[in-house]
Amino acid sequence: RGCAAAFLFPPSPYHPFTKMQRFYATSMPSACLLVFLAVASPTLAAAKGFLVERRSSFRGTVDANSLEQELSAALGEAMGCGGHISSDQLAAIERQLTPIWSTLPKNGEGNIERRSLRYLVHRHFSRQSALQIRGFEPSRPANASGWGDADILAQRVPAFVESFLESSHKLERGFNLGDAARVVATIEQLVFDFEGSVLEEVYHEQRKPLGRSLSRQGMEQLLESYMIRWMIGDDEEGIQILSGNRSLLESTIPHWDQIVGFVNGQVKALDYKRQQAPALARTEASARPGHNAMETRYSFEDAHGIVGGITKSFASFWDSECRSMKASLVEMDTLHTGRVPLSKFYSHGLDAEWRFGESEEYLRELGALDETSWRGKQVIIPNYIQATSNCIISSEHYLICCVNDCNGVLDEIESRIGAASAEPSQILAVMGNLSSHTTTLEEEHELQLQGSLTSQLEMIADAHGGQVPLHGRLFAQWLHFAFPRECPFPHKTGAVAALTPSEYGERYIASAEDMKAHAAQANASDSHAGLENEDLHWMSQWSAEEELIADYAAMGLRAPWQQRSWLFTMIGGLLGFLVVVAGVVGVAGSGRKVAAEPGLLPHHGKAHFV
């Protein structure tokens, strides 16, 4: 690839393309690919002027007061105070949120808590565009305010936006559906404004005045440059070298030609809109007077609208890459457990698949490694596909990752149940009629709910007064074992971290020696191919700890530790009386544990809110 490429792209983990291009053994030095706030690195932002001033845009700054003013303006727009977000758009967001909203636990006012609001926003962006907003990840521990831990820079946007809606009234009465829609609209507005600021940089680089109309060729050149900057980030030197070396660009960014075709398709979609609905195009600022189907000229607003659409649809465009990666993993999952022996994972990485090269410790940190089975260490397919190492766009504030296949399963369950909890029989009936069965590629594997899966669901319900909370960790865990290739295994909060390769460090990639050592054991992993799941003890990773996203008490549903509180109080009082009267200093058998039913897994050793 030449001396220039070796100098510009030394072997390092500082770019999300590194794992996808492991066969090049090179990477970009920058980990920040796309941010809607340039506050992740104050020194870098100040030195390079990462965001530029622009009219009606969100300006990157490390000054807290300026940041709050910009966020206030953005929220004002989202709340209908003369900004870009219309009441119709807010109503559309509410309709998108309603299926999940209807199944969230509510308080006496019919509103949700902040923890549920955080969960709702995360699910929305995951469903709509495979966008993961930093600070809303389920794996991130929540503090007393209901948001993530004290990572101020990464938490600044969600915490501050939410604080606009936070008042004594809201704390007491909770958040309604309109509040949730405003939070979503605000984040969308911030993302859109940042895209405009990046677009301005490209206009400046190409010496194009913002008010000048562009030809079709000029627009395509502009968007190609935008995509380089959007995907590479703030590495100015790297951007300049890639922009001037087409062959290096195509070898550095996978499927660059297809990406360009995708972008040009967005321009054609705009042309089609002008042809079919010219009045609507002007209303949506996608056409100025004189910009029409007969005169293919494009404004800054046109370009801004196109790049906004790219962000929302890029995960769908990239889905074929994710499907190809999953196909390779499924081929190695001969036991239909949603797991691939680590030995086979590395063997495939050495022989045929350049993508499977994360180190064992990095897989463990990502939550993609199961180390509980007697079969040895295994890579969990859905956790691996959803891992940040596979996100195509990575920033300090959001990531664009592979589509979560479990969303379709959850959506159907929520739409059919329409409540925050359900009895096991109701859930099993819904599961038996799901249209989104576990179909992966050309193969269909029949959903099996008998045996331990049914028993485990009933045990979850027994611990919650006969109802299964749909938004608890145990039900998510049950869904994983019902759909092991689609639904990720839900680790306990704080047990894993969504770290990109650059955030994890140089040891994110496995050495050739380690891969070969594991791969040497690959043949032994096939010796259990004829066994059933029950014989394999495939649910060995089942964890007994429950985590609820909100307090279900208002619904009359209590967690296991709350249901027994009155009994503990009575026993405590009786024991105290005996101590006083008889001088008893201990009660025999008070620490005895109840044995689990034969053939079932232990359950509900501890439970808490997240």
Q: What is the terminal separation in angstroms?
A: 49 Å
**Major sheet: order of its strands?**
1-6-5
Measured on Cα atoms, how large is the radius of gyration? 26 Å
Provide a count of the helices.
28
Largest sheet: 3 strands, antiparallel
- Note the beta-strand portion: under 5%
The amount of helix comes to 40-55%
How would you describe the overall organization of this protein?
Helix content is 50%, strand content 5%. The protein is mainly α. The strands form five sheets. Strands 1-6-5 form a three-stranded antiparallel beta sheet. It has a three-stranded antiparallel beta sheet with strand order 2-4-3. A hairpin with a 2-residue loop joins strand 8 and strand 9 (443-444). Helix 4 crosses helix 9 (177-205). The protein is globular.
Quick recap of the structure?
With 610 residues, the chain is mostly helical. The protein is built from 28 helices and 12 strands. Helices cover 50% and strands 5% of the residues.
Keywords, separated by commas or semicolons:
disordered N terminus; 610 residues; mainly alpha; 50% helix
What is the strand and helix layout of this fold?
Layout: H1 2-8, H2 17-20, H3 42-48, H4 64-78, H5 87-101, H6 114-129, E1 131-133, H7 152-164, H8 168-173, H9 177-205, H10 216-232, H11 236-243, H12 246-252, H13 256-276, H14 278-283, H15 300-317, H16 319-332, E2 339-341, H17 342-351, H18 360-366, E3 369-370, E4 378-380, H19 381-385, E5 393-394, E6 398-400, H20 406-417, E7 421-422, H21 424-432, E8 439-440, E9 443-444, H22 452-462, E10 468-469, H23 473-482, H24 501-504, H25 512-519, H26 533-536, E11 546-548, H27 560-563, H28 565-582, E12 607-609
Parallel strand pairs: 11-12
Antiparallel strand pairs: 1-6, 2-4, 3-4, 5-6, 7-10, 8-9
Helix pairs in contact: 4-7, 4-9, 5-9, 9-10, 9-15, 10-11, 10-13, 13-15, 17-25, 22-23
